[in-house]
Design brief:
The complex is a heterodimer of chains A (332) and B (358). Chain A is mainly alpha-helical. Chain A has 13 helices and no strands. The termini of chain A are far apart. The chains are: A mainly alpha (332), B mainly alpha (358). Chains A and B meet through α3, α5, α11 and α13 of A and α6, α9, α12 and α14 of B.
Chain lengths: 332, 358
């Protein structure tokens, strides 16, 4: 096999790995959208907030230290202890559940029955709010997430595949972190599916997604289910935040990844969990391949910024509900 | 007592159709115009112009543009920043290519070019609706910003990748470039805003505006009663982009003077203008002014309060600003989804009956 072709395959594999991460963020969107019809723009900021909280707890930072210092003229910043990763993750999950409850209690409970676009705009407001709170709580400097996950290219894979090509080929370069992210994502999706299919709460969740009124009439508490899906979305956000954060540091640009998840959703359809995953993979591979074959040689690079949106846009013109979305039926 | 229709007799259809049916409103409108044109230019200084008035006027134009698309025609757009960039770069290219032509014509032409680009990006709206469309307009945002970054023809191959506004004059007064007086900046923006607002107001009352609103309320029903969705949606995109383009041109040439596209016209700008029309009120020209004023004044007020009065660090105040803007948006949507304009309308209803409650 020629080296060029093999490098092409490497690009595809790396694209698949990136796509998994897009799919993780998109998954959080789909969960909330299916259950409550809210298009949650704040998903990316939730990932950022979760990662910030995790780092903050692990390092023993004092929450709102900056604000407290400004208000009272004190000089607090750290408690002086370090929390082990697992305990910190458990705390962060609790905080995300608390956040889910607060969001439901103080915002979306009052917006039931509003038009979807109003709900969408409320989540944009939520995104700003949460970003500001995250910065206030933990500071806005770039943080490194030291969970002890392996990083860098995997030597084993490189040596293993080096024999495939000729002398120009040195084996596939695949980031260990990406491999772990893929495994985590698979576990996460599998457990979500098991939860949705085989537990009582999961069934109730699917019932709400199918039809609010019918679900209400058989005695399912909408409020509880909504808190549940927001919590699940918060946990998915935490996983996504940890993966992205370990890769490129916990910083504001993390929340922009949410925007990348939007074309993924458009491709896959807003209401489909498999759609989110397939869409993520298509976008991941598509943008890497486009950059490799056309973007970098002919268009001056950095096409990854917009390629996903253009792909989704062109795709939508032919299939407005996405790959797996429910057919849009309009009535007057 | 003053705010009454009673006694204000209309004797012609023209009088019956006027924008402000109540005399008090008309007087108020003329007085505020007179203050804006005859008082503020003489008292304005550099700080007030740069921190408050000029950005307010420019954002108000952008908000009018977006409100036409989102508030009147119901098509959510997240590409405002990208379209402002089109206006800015079109204006720059025209200014440098035809230095002898008046900048007023350049700005209007820049609006026209943006209208064409906007209509092109509006084409998918015929197939795609709702959220899908909102995301599709993101394609415009990212693609346009990337384009102006990568293709050096747009910034005349300058080494920094920035565009700089050369000095231009209107009736002998510098309006762009480093030697512009604050009042000149203010006046040119004010003139553009006034004209734009008048055009928008009258468009939305006429046939075109009614067809937009019909599409917004229910597009299939509108189609059945004979509104052409192709025409309505594309005119909405074109007219909206025209205003947004003008605001982008002014933002670059008059306000900033030098622009780097990713920084000045990024996705944040799209959201800022969107927030203006949500807080101000969707489907209301007054709402555009109210929303723009609110979101321009809020950071300035918070900064004055936080940094100058309380002596807090700047970054802390910037974060608080985010929290407050976010919380306000949610609060407004819960309490009054129709924005400041609706509060204003309710206040006027109460005033008409005052001092009686019913």
């Amino acid at each position: 096999m020629s080296a060029d072709f093999l490098y092409g395959i490497e690009v595809v594999i790396n694209g698949l790995m990136a796509g998994v991460l897009y799919a993780l963020v998109a998954l959080g969107f789909v969960l909330i959208f299916k259950a409550s019809g809210i298009f949650n723009y704040a998903q990316g900021v939730m990932a950022l907030f979760a990662a910030l909280t995790l780092v903050g707890i692990m390092e023993g930072q004092v929450p709102f230290a900056h604000l407290i210092n400004a208000l009272f003229g004190t000089e607090v910043h750290h408690f002086g202890w370090e929390v082990p990763a697992l305990l910190a993750i458990a705390f962060t999950v609790l905080i995300m559940i608390g956040f889910a409850w607060a969001v439901q209690q103080f915002v979306f409970r009052h917006l039931v029955g509003q038009e979807p676009i109003i709900l969408f705009m409320a989540t944009i407001g939520l995104a700003y709010f949460l970003e500001g709170v995250g910065d206030l709580m933990w500071g806005s400097d770039i943080k490194t997430l030291a969970l002890g996950l392996p990083q860098g290219g995997s030597l084993a894979v490189e040596e293993w595949t080096a024999g495939l090509g000729g002398d120009d080929f040195y084996g596939f370069f695949i980031d260990k972190l990406d491999m772990i992210a893929t495994i985590v994502a698979i576990i996460l999706v599998a457990s979500l599916i098991i939860f949705a299919q085989y537990t009582k709460q999961g069934r109730a969740m699917r019932a709400v997604a199918d039809d609010h009124q019918a679900a209400l009439s058989v005695g399912i508490s909408l409020n509880f289910i909504w808190v549940l899906v927001w919590s699940l979305a918060g946990i998915v956000a935490l996983v996504a935040g940890v993966m992205w954060g370990a890769k490129s540091g916990v910083q504001f640009s993390l929340s922009l990844i949410a925007l990348k998840a939007l074309p993924v959703l458009m491709l896959g359809g807003f209401t489909s969990i498999p759609g989110a995953i397939v869409g993520g993979l298509i976008i991941g591979v598509g943008e890497k391949l486009f950059e490799y074959t056309i973007g970098a040689p002919f268009l001056g690079g950095a096409t990854e910024n917009w390629f996903a949106y253009m792909l989704a846009l062109i795709f939508l013109v032919f299939r407005p509900q996405g790959l797996f979305g429910e057919k849009i039926i309009e009535r007057v | 007592m003053l705010y009454r229709e009673a006694g204000d007799f209309k004797t012609s259809y023209h009088a019956d159709n006027q924008t402000f049916p109540i005399k008090f409103d008309r007087i108020g409108f003329w007085i505020s115009l007179a203050i804006a044109f005859l008082v503020i230019p003489f008292v304005i200084n550099d700080y007030w112009a740069n921190a408050i008035f000029v950005p307010f006027l420019i954002y108000a134009i952008a908000a009018i543009g977006l409100n036409i698309l989102t508030g009147y025609c119901g098509q959510v757009s997240l590409g405002t920043g990208g379209f402002m960039a089109v206006g800015a770069y079109a204006c720059y290219k025209l200014m440098t290519a035809f230095p002898d032509v008046s900048i007023v014509i350049h700005i209007i032409l820049a609006g026209g070019i943006t209208a064409a680009v906007g209509a092109a990006f509006g084409l998918p709206s015929l197939r795609i609706k709702g959220f899908y469309l909102a995301v599709a307009t993101l394609a415009a945002q990212f693609f346009l910003v990337w384009l102006f970054n990568k293709v050096s023809w747009f910034y005349n191959y300058s080494a920094s990748g920035q565009i700089n506004a050369p000095e231009r004059f209107v009736v002998g007064v510098a309006v762009t470039g480093p030697n512009t007086a604050p009042w000149a900046q203010y006046m040119i923006c004010l003139v553009f805003l006034t004209v734009c607002a008048l055009i928008a107001r009258n468009l939305t009352r006429g046939t075109v505006g009614r067809s937009w609103m019909a599409i917004r309320d229910m597009d299939i029903a509108a189609e059945i009663i004979g509104v052409n969705p192709l025409k309505a949606k594309l005119t909405a995109f074109a007219v909206s982009s025209f205003f947004v383009g003008i605001s982008g041109a002014l933002f670059f040439s008059v306000y900033l003077g030098a622009v780097e596209v990713g920084e000045a016209f990024g996705i944040q700008k799209s959201f800022l203008v969107l927030f203006m029309i949500i807080i101000g009120g969707l489907g209301s020209i007054f709402g555009c002014f109210a929303g723009a004023a609110f979101l321009v004044l809020l950071p300035v007020a918070l900064k004055v309060l936080g940094v100058d009065v309380l002596g807090w660090p700047t970054d802390l105040v910037a974060h608080l600003n985010l929290v407050i803007v976010g919380a306000l948006i949610m609060f407004f949507l819960i309490k009054e989804p129709h924005g400041l304009a609706q509060l204003w309308r309710l206040a006027k209803e109460k005033l008409r009956l005052w001092p009686f409650p019913y």
